[in-house]
Design a protein that fits this description.
Helix content is 38%, strand content 27%. With 103 residues, the protein is an alpha+beta fold. It has one domain. The strands form two sheets. It has a three-stranded antiparallel sheet with strand order 1-3-2. The chain has a two-stranded antiparallel sheet with strand order 4-5. A hairpin with a 2-residue loop joins strand 2 and strand 3. The protein is globular, with a radius of gyration of 14 Å.
């Protein structure tokens, strides 16, 4: 992982959020179906919904940055019924314990 690239991505995501929180929240909530080949990619993050792999923008960005598990994420209010973000407060970097977190 490039610390500079992750830091730059985090800064740009937070700048975009500041400029248009509604658009960025809607974009981050977007999930599209993807095939198993993409779901098994080493760094792109996907998840299962109703037994179908799904991809969102942060999963793709984390894959581009090579962040694998953890990576760039969003903090904010979540709808407990749907799991969708209602309002993003900020973007953060989250990494599993033991990985370099000085970004």
């Amino acid at each position: 992982m490039s610390h500079d690239a992750a830091r730059r991505a985090l800064d740009i995501l937070n700048q975009a959020l500041e400029r248009d929180p509604e658009a960025i929240t809607a974009l981050v909530n977007l999930r599209v179906p993807c095939n198993e080949k993409l779901a098994r990619h080493a760094t792109i993050q996907t998840y299962l919904l109703d037994d179908s792999p799904r991809l969102g923008p942060l999963g793709l960005i984390n894959g581009v940055l090579g962040l694998g598990r953890g990576g760039l994420g969003a903090e904010g209010e979540v709808d407990p019924r749907t799991g969708r973000l209602l309002r993003i407060r900020r973007f953060v970097l989250t990494l599993p314990p033991g990985l370099d977190t000085e970004v």
